[in-house]
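Problem 12. The chain below contains 202 residues. Write out its predicted structure in token notation.
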Amino acid sequence: MKVNTLIFDLGGVLIDWNPAYVFDKLIDDEEKRRHFFRHICTSEWNEEQDAGRSLKEATQLLVDQHPEWQNEIEAYYGRWEEMLGGPIPETVEIFRELKESGRYKLYALTNWSAELFPVALRKYDFLHWFDGRLVSGEEKTRKPFPEIYQRILDRFAINREEAVFIDDNLRNAEAAQAFGIPTIRFQSPAQLREELKAREIL
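Solution.
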């Protein structure tokens, strides 16, 4: 079937986000940094905020468990805006071309804290180009759980067979594909452009 809808992940695809922008400066010892992200502010902990847990609760939970790391734990969300490296220009340009073509509905499906997403909306005009957005923290569920893929299809009346989902996270991309949504695993803007051309979308 002909594609009429594209669904974009945001972080790592359209927006550069990386805690290293803060913690490379805050923790100057590489081994301590690795320990911090493996055992304290882990990706699993961060994903609970993406699924709706409050930043205050999440921060206090870790401070209670690891009081010796209090400054670093509090910096994770206290300095979160510094982790935003800005738009990924080449992908934003692809997004612009798709928008200006007028051929597609364009949606965002992102794992993002509901408390922090307004920061991105304020900073990046292109987030307002979407026909609709589904933010995990607002939905109280997140990728890769099937319900969030079903929810975006239902919310915006998307036919999965006429859509393409773009995500840099392999786990989330594979989950969407398994759910029946054709998927492109984003690796670089150049690779994405070639994939879209191959599918006759660009």
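Discussion. The chain has a mean pLDDT of 97. Students who got a different answer should revisit the alignment rule from Section 12.3.
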